[in-house]
Amino acid sequence: MGIQRIESVTYSVDDLDACVRFFTDFGLTPVERTAVRASFETAAGQRLHLDTLPDPALPPALEDGPTLREVVWGVDTEADLATLVARVGVDREVALGADGVHRTRDETGFGLGLGLTLARAKEFAPGGPREANVSGAVRRWNAPLEPVGRVRPLRMCHVALNIPKAGQEEAVAFYLDRLGFRATDVVKPMGTFMQCEGDDDQHNFLLCHRPDRAGVNHVSYEVPGFDDVIEGGNHMIAQGWQEARKLGRHTVGSNVFRFVHAPCGGRVEYAADMDRVDASYGTRVHETTPPHHIWTLRSSRDASGSTAS
Ligand SMILES: [Fe+2]
After folding, report:
1. What is the C-alpha separation between 25 and 229, in angstroms, rounded?
2. Block means of pLDDT (10 residues each) for the chain, length 309 residues?
3. E-assigned strands of the chain?
């Protein structure tokens, strides 16, 4: 059934030590470290690659400084993989790597890979969010809560890339027409939210033309629940990393979010409770941009910065 998920993302970075510290703090599992590159894994087995000497075969970086260079999408069958590779190969070179990934570039110039989804993705069983209590629907008996502790992202749930306004239709059409993505929300002044064929998240991919330049916007990591979003963000701040937005809940997608500036470029997001949608959701076209969020954290204590109770 086509593309199932993000399989890996690759960044070219300057300060590998800082990036390794960042993603260790963020809660990913380290799987490889050399003097020039490092890799991490989500609970679902997706890989994050950080490389100070990126493969020269990758398309050139689309912005200065550390940035995202490639997204590899995982496909579930050899037959579907062959179909997708043939479709993208109509007008551009596609090279098969030793790792089984077919590599090319998208309309904007971002590195694009297509490979088989790793079998372990199917074995991924993270459990669920904490049970919540409300009068009339009590779910948690005799089970006082404790801190989540170290937050462990379950999976990369979406990638958001910035693209120039010029050519935006072609950039989006490439993913819709050739790679089987479905547009879930088209926000005309801002960008297009897309879902890959094998997933239920309201979006797995966003091409955002509002900044009118190419580059990484953010990569989002799903965590089990609100506590994880809050505690994970708190931990990152305690480790000295800079929050990019206040805690909130998005309008499009409905997920609770917390964003942190990443030394690999762009931002990363802790996300929980995103909308799941199927074909009956259709494509929602917004002539004007909906509010960015349903709510963000507001505090009358912001000005003082006081943390005393
Ligand atoms: Fe996001």
Report:
1. 13
2. 95 98 98 98 95 96 98 97 98 96 98 86 65 94 93 96 98 98 98 97 98 98 95 98 97 97 98 97 97 94 55
3. 3-12, 29-33, 37-41, 47-51, 67-75, 95-96, 102-105, 111-116, 155-162, 182-187, 191-195, 205-208, 215-222, 248-250, 256-261, 267-272, 284-286, 293-296
What pLDDT is attached to residue 123?
57
Alpha-carbon dihedral of residues 97, 76, 273, 204, nearest 10 degrees? 50
Q: How far apart are CA 160 and CA 6, in angstroms?
A: 12
* Residue 45 zone, left/alpha/beta (φ > 0; ψ -120 to 50; rest): left
Whether the pTM exceeds 0.85: the reply is yes
User: Which domains, ranges and CATH numbers included, belong to the chain?
Assistant: 3-119+153-296 (3.10.180.10)
Q: 309 alpha carbon to ligand 1 midpoint, in Å?
A: 32
Q: How far is the CA of 169 from the centre of ligand 1 (A)?
A: 21
Query: Which amino acid is residue 157, in one-letter code?
Result: C
pLDDT in the model for residue 116? 95
R_g (Cα) of the chain, nearest Å: 19
Kindly give the distance from the C-alpha atom of residue 23 to the centroid of ligand 1, in angstroms, as a whole number: 17
Q: Which two tokens stand for residue 225?
A: 């629940």
Cα of 202 vs centre of ligand 1, distance in Å, is 11
Task: Look at residue 122 in the predicted model and tell me its pLDDT.
Answer: 47
In a 3-state reduction of DSSP, which class is residue 126? coil
